[in-house]
TrEMBL record:
Extent of the signal sequence: none
Source superkingdom: Bacteria
Keyword Phosphoprotein: yes
Domain Response regulatory: 9-124
InterPro entries cross-referenced by the UniProt entry: Bact_response_regulator (IPR050595), CheY-like_superfamily (IPR011006), Sig_transdc_resp-reg_receiver (IPR001789)
Name by which UniProt lists this protein: Response regulatory domain-containing protein
Pfam families: Response_reg (PF00072)
SUPFAM superfamilies (alphabetical): CheY-like
Length: 126
């Protein structure tokens, strides 16, 4: 694995259990270490407790706290983890809004894991 047990390559936040399971499995098969969360508040709490990672993949649409709201909370708390938004409803307005507020990329879920894994690796490699 690329990451160490203490610092995963990727934290994945998505409220869709099946998508989260499939995507994390695909990323693990590609050599990434992945830690999953079902909602934004859970990740935020873990980050407050000292969790570190190389990149965060955040679902844009989640019921309790959207990915965008989660990014805002992370920024307010000084958490500088690179973020890629995942969505099934890609709109150019969302892309620009997210990029203007600190995210490093925006990926439509229909593009599949290959494109996402490549983007994740590019960001991790700096």
């Amino acid at each position: 694995m690329r990451g160490t047990p203490d610092v995963p390559d990727v934290v994945l936040v998505d409220d869709d259990d099946l998508y989260r399971e499939v995507l994390s499995g695909d990323l693990i098969d590609r050599g990434f270490s992945v830690l999953c969360f079902a909602d934004g508040p859970s990740l935020l709490e873990a980050l407050r407790d000292g969790l570190e990672a190389k990149i965060a993949l955040l679902d844009w649409d989640m019921p309790e706290m959207s990915g965008f709201e989660l990014l805002g909370a992370m920024i307010e708390e000084g958490i500088t983890l690179p973020v890629i938004f995942l969505t099934g409803h890609s709109l150019s307005e969302r892309d620009l809004h997210a990029l203007d507020h600190g995210t490093v990329d925006f990926v439509d879920k229909v593009h599949g894991t290959d494109a996402l894994a490549h983007r994740v690796q590019v960001i991790i490699d700096g």
